[in-house]
Automatic annotation (TrEMBL):
It comes from Kitasatospora saccharophila. PANTHER family: EXONUCLEASE (PTHR42924), POLYMERASE_HISTIDINOL PHOSPHATASE N-TERMINAL DOMAIN-CONTAINING PROTEIN (PTHR42924:SF3). This is Polymerase/histidinol phosphatase N-terminal domain-containing protein. Residues 18-82 form the Polymerase/histidinol phosphatase N-terminal domain. Signal peptide: none annotated.
């Protein structure tokens, strides 16, 4: 088998964990596809995306390493001179041309080409601290934004570059959620070396374990980001007898909104931060169940950050939309 299947049988609606940014020895990574697949299973992942720099997945290298318990999504890291982006859900052999820069009309053509075959375009590590790594393109060009990139150290997977990316993405949410044109956040390891895979990981609520379903859920914002598979989170909003989850819109009928966060697998001393278009509105000690209330007149969305005692992120959600 040259290429892995795009759908795994018998895996219906549910939450699936995966890593959307992974490199192997076929670009500048240090692990073979078989080693990456083994690491994905060890990290508790259901899917991963192979994203070599400016080259398609090597025929035959991924076809046999997935299996019934691990979905492999074909992709590419498009490494331009003014920032990198991920093309996810590519057809076998499909390649996006990386020879463009900010202001070049060719970037729009390449983005359209990925989307035309059902693919997803993700702004990668927008504040990466090296020449060409910092994203100069507007975030609005893309379908999602990688706000958490774990490449630099598995021991310290959250740093100032991720904090800057999260802040920039968060500032744009208010206007975007009101117009219906907002870019969901994702987190990826950007694995190059052993010990990095799945730190962090994107947890997606999809209709099935298939490449189209995973990408559709990411596009819709039905996902959150975890440092590891040990972290468990459920975030819902309730109003007027209705309930909505992450990435969904809650019709509040002008009634107060109760927000509930259920957590497990956290170290001691963590805090939960509720963020809205007004910024950080409420902070509480993390526990099995954390509650807060607001209303749609006050904000168009609420999202959650779970932080360690030293301030590092442990989990981040996309917003619940209020209307």
């Amino acid at each position: 088998m040259d290429y892995p299947p795009t759908r795994l049988p018998g895996r219906g609606p549910g939450w699936y964990r995966g890593d959307l940014h992974v490199h192997s020895v076929h670009s500048d990574g240090g692990l073979t596809p078989a080693e990456l697949a083994a690491a994905a299973r060890a990290a508790g992942l259901d899917f991963l995306a192979t994203t070599e720099h400016d080259s398609p997945a090597e025929p035959g290298s991924w076809g046999e390493v997935g299996g019934d318990d691990l979905l492999v999504i074909l992709g590419q890291e498009v490494t331009t001179r003014t920032g990198h982006w991920l093309a996810l859900g590519l057809a076998p052999g499909q390649l996006a041309d990386h020879r463009h820069r900010l202001g070049d009309p060719a970037v729009d053509q390449e983005l359209r080409g990925v989307r035309a075959t059902g693919g997803l375009c993700v702004a990668a590590h927008p504040h990466a601290p090296y020449p060409g790594g910092e994203l100069a393109y507007p975030l609005e060009l893309f379908d999602a934004v990688e706000v958490w990139n774990g490449q630099w150290s598995a021991d310290l997977p959250w740093n100032a570059d991720n904090e800057a990316a999260l802040a920039e993405w968060g500032r744009r949410l208010g206007a975007g959620t009101r117009t219906g044109r907002w870019q969901p956040a994702v987190g990826s390891s950007d694995t190059h070396l052993p010990g990095q895979l799945g730190t962090p990981q994107t947890v997606v609520h999809a209709e099935e374990l298939s490449a189209p379903a995973i990408l559709a859920a990411v596009r819709a914002g039905r996902s959150w980001i975890a440092e590891s598979a040990a972290v468990r989170l459920e975030f819902t909003a309730e109003a007027a007898g209705r309930t909505a989850g992450i990435g969904e819109r809650l019709a509040t009928a002008g009634r107060p909104v109760e927000l509930l966060v259920r957590l497990s697998g956290l170290p001691d001393g963590c805090t939960v931060h509720f963020r809205t278009e007004r910024g950080k509105e409420h902070r509480a000690p993390a526990g099995e169940l954390v509650r807060w209330s607001t209303d749609a007149e006050r904000t168009a969305f609420v999202r959650v950050e779970v932080r360690r005692p030293d301030g590092r992120a442990l989990a981040l959600t996309n917003p619940v939309l209020l209307g």
